[in-house]
Amino acid sequence: MFSVDFTARQPLYEQLYLSAVNLITHGVLAPNEKLPPIRAVASELGINPNTVTKAYQMLEKDGYIYSTVGRGSFVSPNVDKMEEKKKDALRQVEKSINEAVLCGADKQEITEILDKALRNGGLL
């Protein structure tokens, strides 16, 4: 279900986080759908369970999933709110780009920043 690249410079927990976000935001994982247990993900990917725990904690903190003691982790039913959050973020990006252009930034400078953000999964 999740994928990681052991040759990438990005930490595994960030890769797991981004993989889950991608699956959730693209509707592959439906609201209230149960995520695989931490140990199962760790075993399947051949990584430490603490790495998966950290990714799940980040997902929960950011509102993508919720956890229930003894039952596991589930996709948040509020995923639609994440779509609105995305739209707001894109509006902010557009506003920032416009401001940068007004301050003299050129296309190459802006493109380098965008490429770097996309390459690193949104983490600059």
Short structural summary:
The chain is mainly alpha-helical and 124 residues long. The chain is 58% helix and 6% strand. The model has no long low-confidence stretch (mean pLDDT 90).
What does this structure look like?
The structure is a single chain. This protein is mainly alpha-helical and 124 residues long. It has 2 domains: 12-77, Arc Repressor Mutant, subunit A; 80-119. The chain has 5 helices and 2 strands. Strands 1-2 form a two-stranded antiparallel sheet. Helix 1 (12-25) crosses helix 3 (49-61) and helix 2 crosses helix 3 (49-61). The longest helix has 24 residues, at 79-102. The radius of gyration is 17 Å and the shape is flat.
> Can you name the CATH architecture of the largest domain?
Orthogonal Bundle
Strand content: 5-15%
Helix content: 55-70%
> At the fourth CATH level, what is the homologous superfamily of the largest domain?
Winged helix-like DNA-binding domain superfamily/Winged helix DNA-binding domain
What structural class do you assign from the helix and strand content? Answer: mainly alpha
Q: Using the CA coordinates, give the radius of gyration.
A: 17 Å
Mean pLDDT: 90
End-to-end distance: 26 Å
Strand order in the largest sheet: 1-2
**Remind me, CATH topology of the largest domain?**
Arc Repressor Mutant, subunit A
Topology, number of strands: 2
Largest sheet: 2 strands, antiparallel
**Count of separate structural domains:** 2
- Poorly predicted ranges (pLDDT <50, ≥5 residues)? none
The CATH C-level class name of the largest domain: Mainly Alpha
Shape verdict: flat
- How many helices does DSSP assign? 5
